[in-house]
What we know:
The structure is a homodimer of 204-residue chains. Chain A has 204 residues and is mostly helical.
Amino acid sequence: MSGVKARNDKRKQILAAATRVFARKGFYHSKVSEIAAQAGVADGTIYLYFKNKDDLLVQLFEDTMDRILSGVRTALDGCTEIRQKIHLFIAHHLQLVQSDRDLAEIITVELRQSHKFMKEYANPKFGEYLQIFANIVQEGQDLGVIKAEINARVVSRALFGALNELFLYWLMGRGKFTLDEAIRNIDEILLGGLFVEHTSPCHR
Amino acid sequence: MSGVKARNDKRKQILAAATRVFARKGFYHSKVSEIAAQAGVADGTIYLYFKNKDDLLVQLFEDTMDRILSGVRTALDGCTEIRQKIHLFIAHHLQLVQSDRDLAEIITVELRQSHKFMKEYANPKFGEYLQIFANIVQEGQDLGVIKAEINARVVSRALFGALNELFLYWLMGRGKFTLDEAIRNIDEILLGGLFVEHTSPCHR
Lengths: 204, 204
């Protein structure tokens, strides 16, 4: 068992190093040897765990998505009010960005730099993430509080795009607004735009 | 004069070739020599017009933004109703994507692959584009029809992110929705979320 644990720890150590190197140098300009140096392992060790640099990015993304999925499910657990669920989903996305800027930069900026990743990777966990939001919208429609004419798929994709763009802007230090202000505005627009009757956004 | 015209035509011919090559191979994997071949010019000719591949991307983007800016201003010219202005702005963005998929793919996907571009280019024309939308929101606030608590900068950035994500999804052929459906949903959410009183979206 300790062999499995040691292997898992080493894998995590390499992924943490890759996060720092990708965020600092950009995915395309990062070398596997730099990730090895940052992780304090031999170059060859990386290839015992990962096929190549693309594989590092995919596994980094999948590990992160696993944490996000479990985090957002925990946050939503026990919450039954649709407006509150929408707010929690958005706030959880915000917390991720605030808690690890390097990781957030990779998810928002660097991920798009891998042509292979964008064009070939089916990205099932990201689909799962969007589906959580689409399900909240669908549930609101079933309860009759969210407009029937809203397309849950379109809205979940649009929300992700909006949040991603705001966070990207914020990460690059160009945003002349705080993340809390961003969230308040998105809350306000979504709650006013999605619901049959307008309700003020609920805040934490 | 004909020398100036010939130079402009050659420049446009190279930019059109770059559009095709970038869209097909991705920015990072495209070679200047491939762009030259596509344009039917010698490799060295490219460097009479552009400093390097990054410069090609920047100039392609700036030329495109000039066309978009003039197009959206023409579309809005003479329109005084705020809801209609918002709809026209969104619809104009849609028309660009529909009219040139290669160009749209570069603007939405490839642009983000240039680390230099993303991190160092101040992107003034894109700022101008977002400012047009921010001004519409501001105008609506001055007229008292759009909620005072909305931050026009946040909303214009969020709208761009939402549209970009929807179009990216659509371009990659993964969208299980039409572009018209995307626009209808964004219209509905924005008009419901931004305005003091809910109004149905106006359609073309």
